Amino acid sequence: MMKGNVPSKKKQLIPPSHSLEGYLKRYNRQVELPLHYDDLTQYESSLPLLDRNGNDTLWETVYYSEYDRNTIFRALTAIYSLLKTDGDTHVIEHLTVARIDFCTFGNTKPFRIRIINRLNDNYDHFYIKKADASRIYGLELEDLLSPNRVTFLVDGDTLIEEHVAGIPGDDFMKGHLETSHFDQIRIAKEFIKFNERCFVRLLGDMRSYNYVVDITPDIEGSQYRLRAIDFDQQSYEGRKSFYLPQYFKENNPIIFMGIDNMRPETVTQYQLEERSLIAARVKTSPIRFRNLFEVMIKDKLSSTEKVDQLKYELGYHHKSQSFQKCRSMGEIVLTNIKLLLAKDFKQSIIIG
Questions:
Q1: Which pLDDT score is estimated for 107?
Q2: Which of 24, 123, 135, 177 is the most buried (most CB within 10 A)?
């Protein structure tokens, strides 16, 4: 019923083009950083980072020499001020770096920085990664087309991202699906909307560990929002199903719950609601949207074979000839969104 869906092979990093850098500078995403990704790779030792139950998290806590540590910590608190307060350094007087963790299995091999306030022991995180054009486009499309605002900064080959708070999707499915019928309906509704957002802007690989669930207590029950945290597979693969979270077996628990709680006509209603919201966001930021795609359609974000496969599969899905002339992933994404604006976007999921 629900198919497995994995990337064809590990995606290679795509350096940001000069045109993309120009766009980032225009919209204040590009800044001069006091530290870059390669500076953090010069650590002296590392230890596996375990979770509260003693299990390996696949992250390593890294350690630097005393001389390097002082320089790096000052630079990291300065970067945090750029990310949070537009560089106002008054806020960093009481901040220090509590820990630096390194992940070896991700495409961008991220460093996770834990910042702590010495006055109250409150902490926050941010990430330093290798800059990748696909990921940057994914972040920018998330900021433009989703209900979520995203803060990130770029300097050459270095990408800075804020931490997105929430429960990892796989953990959420293990411990939060056995709830009230009312909340189950709300969870299923949000998954339908999330599925639609991913398909419209062609964000792939949304397996359960690549998004988080943000829970907000409400007057009756809770409100739920699914937020992507991995944007490496923004319009890269050739298979249409790769852009539909419904087809990843890791999401089956929430899919089956939706089957039990949703009628097809209700699914269609929620899809239409989400498409209308996306269209409204495009219309409220037309200049930025146009400027982004003027750059994206010229960038080579995937192979010719994947571009040809995706435009064929989307053309077949939408029963549309609009994709035939697309020569890049950027053109395919733009065409997909134009179909939505023209209200000619076909249903992506049926539950029932």
A1: 75
A2: 135
Q: How many residues does the chain have?
A: 352
97 with 115: CB under 8 angstroms? yes
* Tens-place pLDDT, residues 99-153: 999 998 777 789 999 999 888 889 999 999 999 999 999 999 999 999 999 999 9
Of 179, 182, 152, 155, which is closest to residue 167 (Cα–Cα)? 179
Retrieve residue 64's tokens: 């630097």
Backbone phi, psi, residue 47, to 5°:
-135, 145
The residues with which 238 forms a beta bridge, in sequence order, are none
Helix (H, G, I), strand (E, B) or coil at 237: coil
Largest CA distance in the chain: 63
Supply 213's token pair: 């669930």
**pLDDT at residue 86 tops 70:** yes
Domain ranges (residues) in the chain: 18-162, 167-341
CA angle 155, 103, 190 (to 5 degrees): 85
What is the side-by-side order of every strand in the sheet holding 111-117?
Answer: 45-50, 56-63, 95-103, 111-117, 123-130, 158-162, 152-155
CA distance 147 to 144: 8
Mapped onto helix, strand or coil, the DSSP state of residue 325 is coil
- Residues 232 and 138: their CA atoms lie apart, in Å, by 7
Contacts of 130 (CB under 8 A, 6+ apart): 13, 37, 108, 109, 157, 158, 159
Q: Which two tokens stand for residue 214?
A: 């943000």
- What tokens does 329 get? 């992933």
**Bridge partners of 114?**
99, 125
Q: How far apart are CA 105 and CA 102, in angstroms?
A: 9
310 within 8 A of 328, measured Cβ to Cβ: no
Q: How far apart are the first and last CA of the chain?
A: 12
pLDDT bracket for residue 5 (50, 70, 90) = low
